[in-house]
Design a protein that fits this description.
328 residues, mainly alpha, 80% helix
Length: 328
Amino acid sequence: MKKKVKTTLKYLLFFAIGVFIFWMIYKDQDLEMIKSVLQNDVNYLWIWISLIIGIFSHISRAIRWNYLIEPLGSSPRLLNTFLAVMTGYLMNLVIPRMGEISRCGVLSKYEKISFARLIGTVVTERVIDVIVLLIMTAITILAQFGYILRFLRDNPTTGEKVISILRSPYLIASVLVGAVLLITMRKKIMRTRLYKRLGNTVEHLKEGIISVKYVRKKGALIFHSVFIWIMYYLMLYTAFFAFDFTKTLSSLAGLTTFVMGSLGMVAPVQGGLGTWHFMTKEGLALYGVSNENGIIFAFVAHTTMNLMIIVVGLLSLMALPIINRNKQ
């Protein structure tokens, strides 16, 4: 009971942080101006195209998951896998990270596959996704390195702030104190629950990487792992064309904004509420998009993406028992 209360409080805390960040971003905005832009200045055809691209990424994720499940001796129906994936996305909007457990539970129920072994395949998925995101981040930094230097040169106060933070005596003192504590208290730290949980996480990641060697269609697995993230990127970049203030931005600007938004989604907040909006508008600011316009873009893109997940997720929940009634 105590554990459930702690878990609930933790999720509520993260949700409250997300809501607070969202409120801080939008509290001083002219709501009438935002309403006017949404009604008159958005080309929603591009938003619809963006959502269709998003569906392709989810289908690809379902196909990839089937490849990872194959070594378990099971071949679930692709439709069931897709519906389970969408159910998982829906649950992530309720409780962060609950989607992974939910989709494994759904597929285990309708395809009679071991729940624990399905969790193992999801761990493998997460490892692959982290690797792809890191590669995209590295590509962004390398491709935009010159632009970043120009931005810092044209905005000297930003560079000065970064340097002052790095040279801050408080930061240096904190790092030194932290290092001393780690060295002197390492044995006590190694006995803590947090350290053990981190150790378990590392072990799961190792198992996930090793398990890839049992996948029969490795080429297809790699293709879909890349395709999923390309579709995620195109889903965001296509939305650029819906607004006058972003439609002339380059594909690299879209990649930078996408990577920054993806880093915002890493935060354990339902649907990246607040954190995604902040990181996305900051990404757009690098390319001269005003704070107000960046906020409008983030609101439209995030809201429509989540509405699609809610609609398709609810339809998936209703469809699962119907299409599997013969099995039941």
